[in-house]
Specification:
The chain is an alpha/beta fold. The protein is built from five helices and five strands; from the N terminus they run αββααβαββα. A hairpin with a 2-residue loop joins strand 1 and strand 2.
């Protein structure tokens, strides 16, 4: 697959993460989706599954990092890009650093728990041994609207 710009490529893969987020929302999960791209192809995809799994660690990022490690046969994902519809929380940011994901692209900012610049910036903390490249706000409006509509419907 060839893209004219990195922005076009990011939007393309984020749209795939949005498909996963929509799937989560339909299942009653908070609509967050993620994909990991390695060598120009998706090696893992998934969404939040905390309700179904009765497990608070089942965030989309955690699930796709684990699956990608199995898919590529390595715990280090230095040449992979994680696309996720919501800014990673502290737990997910920690997993991203430990897995040495090369690049993180997220959609909506999370002013309550985001650790890629909103509440803190664990992903680029200078004392950590790995700092991925980070790009936020890709399809941010679409990602944010999906979350807003989900919580609006839940309150009604």
């Amino acid at each position: 697959m060839t893209f004219a710009t990195r922005g076009e490529e990011d939007a393309f893969w984020m749209a795939e993460a949005l498909v996963e987020a929509e799937r989560a929302g339909k299942a009653g999960e908070v609509p967050v989706g993620a994909v990991i791209v390695h060598n120009g192809a998706i090696v893992s995809r998934g969404c939040n599954a905390m309700v179904a799994g009765k497990d608070a660690t089942q965030h989309a990022e955690m699930r796709v990092i684990k699956a990608a490690a199995y898919a590529v046969g390595d715990t280090r994902l230095t040449t992979a890009t994680l696309y996720v519809t919501l800014e990673p929380c502290a737990m997910c940011a920690g997993a991203i650093v430990l897995a040495r994901v090369g690049r993180v692209v997220f959609g909506a900012w999370d002013d309550k728990a985001g650790m890629a610049g909103s509440v803190g910036d664990l992903l680029r903390h200078p004392r950590l041994n790995h700092r991925p490249e980070v790009q936020g706000g890709v399809l941010g409006e679409e990602c944010g609207t999906l979350l807003t509509e989900f919580f609006k419907a839940r309150r009604q």
